[in-house]
Amino acid sequence: MTSAEHDRLMRANQANWDARTPVHLASRFYGLDQDLDPERWFAPWEWEDLGELTGRDVLHLQCHLGTETIAFARRGARAVGLDISEASVTAANDIAARAGADVTYVRANVYDAVEALDERRFDVVYTGKGALCYLPDLDRWAETVGRLLRPGGRLYVVEFHPLLNSLGPKPAPGEGPELLLRHDYLGGAGPVRRDGTHTYTDGPAVEGATDSYEWMHGMGEVVTALTEAGLAVRRLRESDELPWPRWPQMVRTESGWWRLPEPRIPLLYGLLATR
Questions:
Q1: What residue stretches are annotated with the Methyltransferase type domain (predicted)?
Q2: CB-hemisphere CA count at 13 Å for 259?
Q3: Which CATH architecture group holds 3-30+43-172+185-231?
Q4: With bands split at pLDDT 50, 70 and 90, how would you rate the model's confidence at 184?
Q5: How far is residue 5's CA from residue 259's CA, in Å, rounded to a whole number?
Q6: Which of 43, 101, 96 is nearest to 77 (CA)?
Q7: Which helix (H) or strand (E) holds 60?
Q8: pLDDT tens digits along 221-262
Q9: Where are the alpha helices (DSSP H) in the chain?
């Protein structure tokens, strides 16, 4: 697939995320009508891996509504969020202002981040929880991350495990509730078109741009892209918990997150790399 075709599909995703934003703003999933608690989206081990953030320059790629970006600012970081959706960036600015958080948000495609941020370098780049699947070219992404980091800077990817993305959340007609492998674990087969009429949150249907495109990326592809871009992988965690109950049979844990009662499989991973 050519870069022009990639750009076309990413523009379709941009339109879909613009259309999703008002649905997400009103959803119970994000709960923005309540007291904002951005740390509920983080596992304790994320903060262990990220370390002290006071006085650090932190960039959150593909930040959507920017709620997690606010958590970095509250921990003393100079926080910047970047997202492809103009509607999301506008909403993120409003949310941060209401929360009294000092965060800068920038609208840009991830691949244009270096230019959009005027060649600024960061101590930490954070991304994940449903971000990498919207990127067609991980080699180009890893190269971009390397250019965004200062020497010694850290990339932290906390992403849904490709095994989770391979499982079908809904049974086909005539099947039971068992989770089955329905989608590729490995990438390379090209984009998968999704019907984005209904998103992962509650609320009404998305109006307008409902086409969405995703690319599968196995963990080997992620690690290889980073190492070939000159980053060193320092830590890789696999977790069996998610911050919300994706499937009805999930049970709540002591952390307040959710896991499958059986079998124990990885649903989330955290990858720490340094430049």
A1: 59-155
A2: 16
A3: 3-Layer(aba) Sandwich (3.40)
A4: confident
A5: 38
A6: 101
A7: strand 57-61
A8: 999 999 999 999 999 999 999 999 988 889 999 999 999 998
A9: 3-25, 44-50, 67-74, 86-99, 113-116, 138-148, 162-166, 219-228
